[in-house]
Design a protein that fits this description.
Layout lengths: L1 H6 L4 E3 L12 H16 L2 E4 L2 H11 L5 E3 L14 H4 L1 H17 L6 E5 L18 H8 L5 E6 L2 H7 L7 E5 L5 H5 L4 E4 L13 H8 L3 E4 L13 E2 L2 H9 L11 H18 L1
Amino acid sequence: MRSKAKYGSKIILDICDNHFIFDETNLEAVKKSFQLKAAIAQVDHLIVSSNYLRDRVTEECGANIEITIIGDLVEEPNIGYWYSSFLNPIASLQYFKLKYWLQNHTPSKKTRLVWFGNHGGNYSEAGMVDLLKIKDLLHDLHKKFPLSLTVVSNSRKKYDQLVSNWYIPTFYTPWNRNNFSRIIKLHSTTVIPITPNKFTLSKTENRVTTALAHGLQVVADEIPSYTKFSQYTYLNQWQDGLVNCFGERGRSLREFDFSHHNQAIAFKWFDLFDSL
């Protein structure tokens, strides 16, 4: 803000989560929320990731804010080079441990499911706990399809509490940027169950596009940012979607071109810069 006052700089603020949800008994969280609202009131332009998040911002901060909706860029798959194992031995060990486990529990890649994401927070029901929504369905499907579920996250403790005792084979591996692409490409389908609330409904399309960019099929609960990917995914179609993914009728992913997706987002940023 000092640069704006001194040089007349234009300031753009990009927010990708609903930061207006917090523990009201946490004074530090309350303080940060007020600081965010003050910052939004002073910047020249605000970027949000979805219509839903835009509506939450105007609900909290007023309708006189310049807002543009721009989605997330897709990170390109990072498979690494032949010498990557030597540079990141822990990541490689995690990868080969999972690969060996999958070969023994689900030899067919078609029935390998993966969930990846933050384990959750204390501000809203979200994260790994959402997997409980599809627990019974996966157990039923396992009677016909020998499936497995891999959890890629940041809390072994949460996995042990929520998932480790399931009837189907499950495996936990910590998120590691050095092996993430290789790990999820061991699977065929990403599952993204979501408990709808003001926090989760504001989330970006990041998990869907990440999965699609890695060539995985996606079965998910629909939130506003996912709707535009309905032609590439199974939204709110858990039973039929998973059965199709396990069989021969999974939707073609060839239509999703993440480089074109990224280019379109880049042009939105260029247009915004030109307008200021």
